[in-house]
Specification:
single chain; alpha+beta; Alpha-Beta Plaits; 10-stranded mixed β-sheet; 8 helices
């Protein structure tokens, strides 16, 4: 009876759960794991994160899935670390190295001079290859990005500010609209600096007013019982209020 009560308690839930996604886990795997573990009928999300990215992942349950379009359209904030001197086919650290160049001449002054070009309205072309989760087998592989997804797109960067300069690694605070390909940004910035660069790590810290500081780690979420899971659900009105 207790198990049936728990199922009933979760079946009537509608809203969002803020999850701190770990690296090396695809967004759809988070959705699948939570759906199965808590025996939920309807589970979605408010925007994917690439497998090697961490941070805020908005899980939607019940009628909360109707919030998906709104959440996907919100601005988002990231902590981005790039590696100078390395260019890869996926434009991130997981890809095959295409070239390596000295980065000693990349000074903070040179970086500051290059950044204005990457703020405001920016045209981006996504990379030719992406790191994806392979269905039916463990780990990740490299797949070609479909041609229709490689068309140049106009996006907007509100803020791109250096928070740590320790070559070959440089970390930024990035606030941008949806659609920004951070891997492409890292690659294009490296090209502008003349030494090349790729994305080293990516962490989403905000989606609109939703903040990763309010999220629960994925492994901690999976340890909760029905009552604990219910306590993490933000009702739809609360998602709009935040």
């Amino acid at each position: 009876m207790a198990k049936l009560d728990s199922i009933a308690m979760l079946a009537e839930l509608d809203g969002a759960v803020l999850v701190d996604k770990p690296a090396n886990m695809a967004s759809h795997d988070v959705v699948k794991a939570v759906k199965q573990h808590f025996n939920l009928v309807k589970v979605g999300h408010g925007g994917t994160l690439e497998p090697n990215a961490t941070g805020l992942f908005v899980l939607l349950v019940g009628d909360g899935t109707r919030l998906s379009s709104d959440l996907m359209g919100r601005d988002r904030e990231y902590s981005v670390t790039i590696r100078l001197g390395r260019v890869t086919d996926t434009q991130d650290r997981e890809g095959r190295t295409l070239s390596e160049s000295p980065f000693d001449g990349t000074t903070r002054a040179a970086l500051d001079a290059a950044l204005p070009e990457f703020r405001g309205d920016v045209f981006q072309t996504p990379p030719a290859f992406s790191t994806i989760k392979m269905t039916g087998r463990p780990g990740y592989d490299i797949a070609e990005t479909p041609a229709d997804e490689r068309k140049a797109r106009l996006v907007h960067v509100y803020r791109l500010a250096v928070t740590d300069f320790a070559p070959p690694l440089v970390t930024f605070d990035l606030l941008c609209t949806k659609g920004v390909c951070v891997r492409a940004l890292a690659h294009d910035l490296g090209a502008a600096l003349g030494c090349g660069a790729c994305l080293e790590s990516l962490r989403r810290v905000k989606c609109g007013n939703l903040d990763v500081s309010d999220a629960v780690g994925f492994m901690d979420l999976m340890k909760l019982d029905a009552v604990g899971f219910r306590s993490r659900v933000i009702r739809p009105a609360g998602v709009y209020a935040q």
